[in-house]
Design a protein that fits this description.
316 residues; alpha+beta; 7 strands; 45% helix
Length: 316
Amino acid sequence: MPALRELQLAFVAAMFGESDEVSAHVRENGMSAEARLGIYQNNLREGFIKALALGFPVIERLSGTDYFRQLALEFLGAHPSRSGNLHHIGAPFAPFLARKFEGTQYAYFADVAALEWAYEEAQLAADADTDVLSAEAFAGVASEDYERLTFEFHPACRFVQSRYPIVKIWRANQPDASGDEVIDLASGGDNVLVLRTPECVEFHSLPAASFAFFEALARGETLGSAVDSAAGSAVESAAESAVDSAAGSAVDSALGSAVGSTPDCVPAAACAHRTDGASANETAFDPGAALRHLLELRILTALRVFDALRSQPDAE
């Protein structure tokens, strides 16, 4: 008789059709080893398909139930769960779809899946350990350190960028949608901040430069570097001149006034969709306004001054 570990490994191999060695150790007792193992194989497949469909209902609707099952089984073969908790199986689904549908008319599936997964992660993310930052948090920072400021973001926010209108696709495929909307995939892309608030999960459509600025800060880049990232996303010289402002000016501006307008909010299922700023396609970028916007969104939880020396490995 093999050791317990060898039996367990053989059982797992049988679940994925890789080997039938474990069959020799199954007591039939009125039912064949193949039939007994088949019950477990079916439970594994059906549980995986159901969990994936719960996380990606829009992809299931877009592809159709039968084809989604086929996709899910192919995905299971490529990315089997390593845990009994299936909440996190969807993490590699968007990249999987990107590879599968690259260069086809269904290439947009990957970005829609990325938005759905961001929504799922925002729902399940932990609460912040600390209160969100207010303008007063900058009071103790020396002006010469503004450029080296880094920030921590609330755990329940994500960023998704696409050349397709993924928010419109998402909204058109909710249970309460009419289902008769025709969406032009070439109508323009989305830069989306996905954010969980106490009331719901929100989609905020951002201008490209603001999206680059927010995402750079969320990756841990300094305020000065994030301003440069926004400059790289600007598409006209007017935007480039706007981001030439020093990081210190951005902070001063952020502390000096409040965001002037409240974006429109249109409920959709359990989600609100906001288009933030003058236009999601605007080219001008104001670092101060962007920093004020972050404070208004209440997603910054900590700030610190980046110390290049402390970030280096200890010398041997």
